[in-house]
Amino acid sequence: MKKRIRLKGRIRTYIQFTLYLGLLLLAIDAAVFMLDFRAGLLTFGFTIFYFAITLTLYFYNKPIIMNELISFATEYGQIQRKLLRDLELPYALLDDSGKVIWTNIAFENAVHQPKGYSKSITSLFPTITRDRLPDESGVDEAQYELEYEGCEYVAKFRKISLKEMAEHSDMIDAEGYNGYLIAVYLFDETALHIALQEVDDQSLSVGMIYLDNYEEALESVEEVRRSLLIALIDRKVNKYIASLDGISKKLEKDKYLVIMRKKAVAQLQENRFDLLEEVKTVNIGNEMAVTISIGIGLDGLTYAQNYEFARTAIDLALGRGGDQAVIKTPESITYYGGKSQQVEKNTRVKARVKAHALREIITGKDRVIVMGHRMPDVDSFGSAVGIYRIAQTLGRKAHIVLNEATTSVQPLVELFKNNPEYDEDMIITSQQAIDMAGSNTVLVVVDVNKPSITECPDLLRFCKSVVVLDHHRQGTETIENATLSYVEPYASSACEMVSEILQYTYDNIKIRTEEADCMYSGIMIDTNNFMTKTGVRTFEAAAFLRRNGADVTRVRKLFREDAAEYKAKADAVSQAEIYKQFFAISLCTAEDLPSPTIIGAQAANELLNIKGIKASFVLTDYQGKIYVSARSIDEVNVQIIMERMGGGGHMNTAACQMEGVGLVEAIGVLKNTIDDMLESGEI
Smallest Cα–Cα separation from 58: which of 17, 101, 117? Predict the structure, then answer.
């Protein structure tokens, strides 16, 4: 080792200086020879003697000097090593493969390993793999957050080049020194995180609690007991919030403002907002159980922002049907509950108010464009036709955006094509709609409130005036800044909502038979022949359409299936797997049919006729995507299942789309989702 080490710099010059003097003596000898030969011989002899002594001392003393240098460096290194060993900061050295080659006492205590531990750093911290360490690709430093035996660390890794160390040395030549070491520093931030968590837990959150069916519940109990029912509900809410060290203040007869710590919200989440179920236990003879909606705002920059988050959250909870809790933060929205059916509102006051507002908006514009969702169904097209009739009655030019008619919608579209009673541009494409859009155009979106699945999402940007009419429960993604939004989850269909609006938009409005048939078809299909989600107002809307020329027989003929579609639906039903005793899962393999997703949805409806089935799911592989149709009767909320998988819909009717997976993998995802939600008590 000593022989391989080469000296350089000043120490090398110092040791070799006597040899340089010998060369100077030789030059002087040459000059003396020229002056006097005998004197030259004398000085030459002295020079030979000088070289002999110098070379002897040089080769004899060099090992001694090298040994002294190394001894000094070793002693100096021992001092540094002792300082590093006793350093309170956990420190270790790794080789270029990530293997531990040296540790100090603090590091050994932190990882509870003895001196001389020489395994890979990955054996201590599984997340730190070789590819995450500094390497020769130019990455010299790295930093990661780690957790080890209950402690939280920030680990910093730094590359130490051996060649650079040698190059900066005044004594050692860098030639032959390659490779690198990796220094590891562990900074214990456990106490800091605990303190930050404590501060975060103590931060205040704002909540709002609304009674969903206040008026209906009071009407279902004797008048003398109504004050007692209200008092019991107040007591239940106040006592529950007080148990969480929170404050609740009644703002109106059916609204509460709640202030609590973030830690209390975490406790509510852990209990899955059991207040939703506790309020339902209040019963003094009322036929209808009281349900509540909860909206909570968290992690805002100010208390005012938390309040705005709470307002948004409560609006979402009510828009999704009530009987649920929604937590909104700057990054996410979380839903809990939503297991109860939405109570139908018997009053039409809201429909009348919305109808008058819609009339004002339409009359203030020159053109109306109506748009439903992608792959439109009968309800989407039927409600669009209803808005078309309103616009025409108010003297405004109207168009329906429809890029491709599915097999279910095709019979209805044929009623208007080549019909002299209707303009040729009644039905237009997305591009045509974008070309027509402008500041004097109102866009009416029906049967959908999720912008990404509308027939033409870009159209929302081109129209400043947007109206939304939908009966689906709202999700995280909604159409923002709508001029008018009328979203009623209790309605059976968008056609039912538009039928009500028709009656208030214009006195004695005249509807043609084709339009009445379309809207009646939408109600009939979405209610599965008036068997699902059908209320008093559903039948009233159907009666209004019947009076205006809708023909039940004619509608039935429009929707008769051909033999191939009927067989495909029968195959999907026959192949169903009963999962966890209550869930029917099947595949629809109608690849040769134009609209297999419609067949899948119909098969999901059929599967609910099997005894004991609480929910049905039919998966269809179509155009590179997996379409999942989910249906239930009343015991399972399929909407929250589909939302977990990226979709949405109603409590009883929902769907989702999956990309990049096959049918087998998609079934696995569905089963895992059901398992997780059953285990957590969400369904």
Answer: 17
Asked if 621 and 615 touch (Cβ cutoff 8 Å), the reply is no
pLDDT bin (cut points 50, 70, 90) of residue 110 is confident
Q: pLDDT tens digits for 615-668?
A: 999 999 888 888 999 998 878 888 888 888 888 877 788 889 888 888 889 999
Cα separation, 679 vs 300, in Å, equals 31
Is residue 612 scored above 80 in pLDDT? yes
* End-to-end CA, the chain: 73
Query: Maximum Cα–Cα distance for the chain, whole Å?
Result: 147
Which tokens in the block code for residue 459? 């159209």
Q: What are phi and psi of 301, to 5 degrees?
A: -70, -25
Please tell me the distance from the alpha carbon of residue 156 to that of residue 139, in angstroms, as a whole number. Answer: 13
Cα distance between residue 71 and residue 556, in whole Å: 103
More confident residue, 123 or 586: 586
Could you count the other beta carbons within 10 Å of the beta carbon of residue 222?
Answer: 11
Q: Which residues contact 245 (CB under 8 A, 6 or more apart)?
A: 260, 261, 264
Query: What backbone torsions phi and psi does residue 278 show, to the nearest 5 degrees?
Result: -65, -40
* Cross-strand partners of 291: none
Q: Is the dihedral angle over the CA atoms 129, 134, 136, 138 positive or is it negative?
A: positive
Taken as a whole, the chain contains a residue count of: 683
Cβ-proximal residues to 507 (8 Å cutoff; 6+ apart), any chain: none
Would you state the structure tokens that stand for residue 268, as one six-digit string?
A: 């509510």
Q: In terms of C-beta density within 10 A (0-12 exposed, 13-18 middle, 19 or more buried), how is residue 497 classed?
A: buried
What are 475-483's contacts with CB under 8 Å, separation 24+? Answer: 475/320, 475/450, 475/643, 475/648, 476/316, 476/333, 477/450, 477/451, 477/452, 478/449, 478/450, 478/451, 479/445, 479/449, 479/450, 479/451, 482/445, 483/361, 483/442
Beta-strand runs (E) in 68-161: 91-94, 100-103, 141-148, 151-161
50's enclosing H/E stretch is helix 37-86
356 has a pLDDT exceeding 80: yes
Q: What does the block give as tokens for 407?
A: 């097999």
Q: Which two tokens stand for residue 488?
A: 């009623």
Per-residue model confidence (pLDDT) at position 103: 83
Contact 415, 517 (CB under 8 A): yes
- Give the ranges where 134-282 is alpha helix by DSSP (H): 162-167, 190-202, 214-219, 226-243, 262-270, 275-280
Residue 2 has pLDDT above 50, yes or no: no
- The tokens for 464 are 């400043």
Residues forming a β-bridge with 211: 292
Query: What pLDDT is attached to residue 117?
Result: 79
Q: Coil, strand or helix: which one is 586?
A: strand
The predicted pLDDT at position 294 comes to 93
Mean pLDDT value across residues 84-95: 81
Rounded Cα gap, residues 84 and 29, in angstroms: 57
0.85 surpassed by pTM: no
